[in-house]
Amino acid sequence: MMSALQSLPFTLRQLVIFETLAETRSFAGSAELLGISQASVSSQFKALEAQLGVALMARSAGRRPELTPEGERFLADLRIFSSAADQLAAHRLRRPGPREIVRFRILLGQGLADHYVRPRLDRFLAAHPHIVLEFDTRIPSHESTLAASSGTYDFVLIHQPADEPVAEAMRSLGRVSGGIFGNRKLAAGREVPLSPEEVARLPFALPSGRDDGAEQRLRRKLASFGVQPTNIVARVQFFDVIIAMVARGQAVANLPAAMIPPDMRGRIVRLFPLHDWRLVFHRRDAEAQADRDAVERLLLESVVKNRAYGLMPD
């Protein structure tokens, strides 16, 4: 009698690719995340659909692919399948005894740390008690971009303006929209987006940190869009404080849209569009190694696979 496992109309690799596509809604983004070519992602996915005899995703030019009803059902069953696979994997021999402590230094954007990575950090550390993570969290700035290229970090995951070049050691994972965001009441019934002159009169909160030239660079960037703020109400070092001031209507700020917590998005609106932001990543040692692989999965899955983040392909 043939085992059901022998007659499966797909490979485990195809399932991993489908699951990643279902989360990212991007063939290019999935290829980046999996470390394979976009052509390989496309061919493996097409083979899966052919072997099943159904369309799992609807694809059309200029639009992100979406799961079909059959794709939604297949994804739900895949999650059950993955849970069963985890139970089977739990039967492997677990060797007793403590493991040697390993430490990794991580440069991480403050907003990424607060809203995406920290909520998953407790489970990760409980599952990997021998791994110590040392975080350096910073507001996006020219200083953080320079620090990312210094070679002192094992991992880097930060935002940088999309109109700036990506350093050779980094790789771009995609983009998120950006602009000047504020409480809806600051629009005061006016049509959004506001004009550069209207935005310039709003109360601004500017990021502050160890980079003495950050404010002047931001002012030059705003000026290139015709915005020259005349009312600076705060210079803030901490990202969560900036967000709180924006949500309460005390100030406006230049932000990546993905850094606004989902529970605040009903109160906050993009008052003026600016440049997009690019999510960039670096892993110092690319060679496969279990502990480094685990840290990379924590960082990328916390952000890239989180639908609230809203990553767009480059």
Task: Set out the fold topology.
Elements: H1 12-24, H2 27-34, H3 38-52, E1 57-58, E2 66-67, H4 69-89, E3 102-109, H5 110-127, E4 131-138, H6 142-148, E5 155-161, E6 171-176, E7 178-183, H7 196-200, E8 204-207, H8 214-224, E9 232-236, H9 239-248, E10 253-256, E11 268-273, E12 277-283, H10 290-303
Parallel strand pairs: 3-4, 3-5, 8-9
Antiparallel strand pairs: 1-2, 5-12, 6-12, 7-10, 7-11
Summarize the structure.
The chain is α/β, with parallel strands linked by helices and 314 residues long. The protein is 39% helix and 21% strand.
| Average pLDDT number | 87
Shape: globular
Bin the strand percentage: 15-25%
What count of helical segments does DSSP give?
10
Number of strands: 12
Topology as H/E string? HHHEEHEHEHEEEHEHEHEEEH
Q: What is the rounded Rg?
A: 22 Å
Assembly state (oligomeric): single chain
Assign a percent range to the helix content. Answer: 25-40%
Low-confidence stretches: none
Strand order in the largest sheet: 4-3-5-12-6
Sheet of most strands: 5 strands, mixed
What structural class do helix, strand and pairing data support?
alpha/beta
**Cα-to-Cα separation, first versus last residue:** 50 Å
How would you describe the overall organization of this protein?
- With 314 residues, this protein is α/β, with parallel strands linked by helices.
- The protein is built from ten helices and twelve strands.
- The protein has helices at residues 12-24, 27-34, 38-52, 69-89, 110-127, 142-148, 196-200, 214-224, 239-248, 290-303; strands at residues 57-58, 66-67, 102-109, 131-138, 155-161, 171-176, 178-183, 204-207, 232-236, 253-256, 268-273, 277-283.
- Helix 5 links the parallel strand 3 (102-109) and strand 4 (131-138).
- Helix 1 crosses helix 2 and helix 1 packs across helix 3 (38-52).
- The radius of gyration is 22 Å and the shape is globular.
- The mean pLDDT is 87.
